[in-house]
Structure formats: structure tokens, C-alpha cells
Design brief:
single chain; alpha/beta; 11 helices; AAA+_ATPase; ABC_transporter-like_CS
Length: 262
Amino acid sequence: MSLDVTDLVIEIDGRRVVDGISFAVPDGARVGLIGESGSGKSLTALALMGLLPDGAAATGSVRWNGREILGIPDRELARIRGNEIGMVFQEPRTALNPIRTIGRQIAEAVRIHERIDRRAAHARAVAEAGRVSLPDPERIVDRYPHQLSGGQRQRAAIAMALAARPRLLIADEPTTALDVTIQAGVLRLLLSLVESGGMSLVFITHDLAVLAQVATHGVVLADGRVVESGPLEGLLTAPASPITQGLLRDATATLWRGEDQA
């Protein structure tokens, strides 16, 4: 299944914040949206999922497997969310419900889309917790988000997004709040799950060094517009846009700092 975004425009209270973004994610591709804060990358992801905040409106075209999904009724889009397209949000503290157990939250998408009973859903939650390398899956599914570490919460969020086996995963800065060691583990996990499941990936980040670990193509955004796109190798070795060149300098500086600390 493929995703095609054409001339996406997002306005918030009449102010244009995303201006004509276009990109494609072929079946099995790993595409990154990269840009500084305010570039429009997270709003683009929310528009793809039909989750824009109040006061925001999107126009243009978002086609999933040839079907236009931008602007379709929420009831129809709900059949796609989680089932065909999953999303890992930037901050698991806000993405996870604090008064529901981890297992119940992982199982929710499965119960909605696959109509299985509570016992089977619990078994599935345990299996998914194990699949994302959460420790002691049988016990951890009975815990609440505040009882998990930051890295464990992010793994639980990934398990939630992948429980119903979607064909496309959107990951919105999933490692921003994690330290470098945990970040590396989560990135390896994401890449492994995407590759083993044959999924497509849209990975959103402000860090070109992070993007280089998971994506093969990049779309560089600034002020709500695409300023450069192409194979990631080209963006790393011969960036044409000053924006991409700045991101590359930042990534190089981060890598140097990491080597100094090591």
C-alpha cells in the first residue's frame, strides 16, 4: 500500500502554516520528514491521520492505496487508524492514558479492529509487549504508565501503534525525550519491526543524524514548505538547500560531541 500526499495546505485560524507539501511513500519505503521546530512536519503527520487540532483545516490530497482519505468522515477514517496506519506520538506521557494499564491500551486497537474477546486481547497484549522487548511482559502489561521508565513507555507506545499490524507507521520524533543510549535502542527496535513486518515508514525528526539510521529518503521542510527532497545519501553528501546544509552541520556537531563524551 502506498501513501501519496499532494499539495497539502494546512491553515490554523486562517493562517497558513503548511503550504503545498507533496511527497510519496511507496509500499515498503522509509521516508523521513525533517525540519526545525515550526517547519510543519508534525502538523503534516496529524493531517494524515485526521487528528488536526481545533481551528485547523487541511486541503489538498492525501491518498492511501489510491483512496482519498483527506476529509473523509471520521467514522471511515477510524477504520484506517491503527488498523492500516499506525502512529507513534512524540511524547508517550501524553499519548498513554494514565488511568489504564499498559496491556489494556496495547489491546485496544486489536479489540476494535479484530473483534476478539478480552482474554485473547490480553494474550495479544503480552505478545506485543514481548515483541517490543519490554521486560517481563506478563507482569508489565498490568502496570500503569507512571510505573514505567521513559524508554519503556516509548516501547509501549510502539506496541500500541503496531498491535493491529498496520501497513504504514508514522513515527513523530519518537526518541526526542530519551537519552542517547535508550534512543539508539528504540531506533534499532523501530527499524527491525518495520523491516520484519514489511511496513512503510514515515519518520519525523529535527535530527539528520537520527534520520540517517532509519530512513532511505528525506523530505526537508522549512516554514511549511518542502525545500529539498531525495535519497538520504544525497542529502548527507551533497545538500543543495541552505536549510539541509544547516541540519547537516548540526548533525555533525552532535556526532562529534558524542565521540568526545565516549
